[in-house]
Design goal:
With about 325 residues, the chain is an alpha/beta fold. The chain has two domains: about 210 residues, Spore Coat Polysaccharide Biosynthesis Protein SpsA, Chain A (Alpha-Beta Complex); about 90 residues, no CATH class. Helix content is about 50%, strand content about 15%. It contains twelve helices and nine strands. Strands 1, 2, 3, 4, 5, 6, 7, 8 and 9 form a nine-stranded mixed sheet that branches. Strand 2, helix 2 and strand 3 form a beta-alpha-beta unit. The radius of gyration is 21 Å and the shape is globular.
Amino acid sequence: MSPTVSIIIPCYNEEKSIRILLDAIFAQTYSISAMEVIIADGISEDNTQAEIAAFQDLHPDLDLRVIENPACIIPAALNIAVEAARGEIIVRLDAHSAPAPDYVERCVDALNAGLGDNVGGVWDIRPGTKGWVAASIAAAAAHPLGVGDALYRHATQAQIVDTVPFGAFRRELIEKIGLFDESLLANEDYEFNARIRESDGKIWLDPAIRSVYFARPTYSRLAKQYFNYGYWKWKMLRRYPETLRWRQALPPAFFLSIIFFLLLGFFSPLFVFLLILELLLYFFILFLAALKNKMLGLPIAIATMHISWGGGLLWSALTSVFKVKNG
């Protein structure tokens, strides 16, 4: 018999995307009778609950439960859902995603084959809404200049990796390494995977395992998202400094260089010249990428990601230092 699968989903105010996700789950090639869906809702204030109820009315044969997440943070939602889950295998999805029809089946096959302790696939990143801004953000979120060597955004070969989004794992893994860390409001997946690697486990990425991910629709929401990523990345790096990768060091270094040249520019025009030169080179490279992708909004999106992520990490580091001194 097929192993039972619990699909867990953190959710908050997702009225525009939750039905897309639920329809994609219902379309899975994996047996409906062997799946359950648990949505941990952070007490949504929009029509999310109504959209879920409407789906349930149409598809009563899918075991779907909604549980409250009063903490309103993603790791708490995941932990509440895991504790409520009854399946042998846990598949984590996101309310901004839509898995391919064979997503669950391929995840289960990879786990059964022993390819990894946590398995996942590649995002097909789509615009969060209509228009050139959203299209530029989606392109930036999948472009190597924007995300470096984050293989889950553009890998073409199956391989062992550091992390995967929306991982699938056996319930015993939680018993071995523990639940998601609720002190991290972002980067909880990466921290979870770091503990898997520390316990000699393997993270397996297969580009045949695919899901659509809807990117943020505006530059302001993109900036907020990446600032949070950077802020909480520093918190995680304090515990796991060995997990720092070159692509993650570049945005804060770039951000620092801008501040450095700006401050020293008050004392010498040489540093103003160096700042202008750096920015011209930076945006020239981004402009070439924009021409190649025929998307002129791409430089703004990538620069927003870099500066927000780097600024968030540096702000987190700075506030941590002051907290230690004052403590």
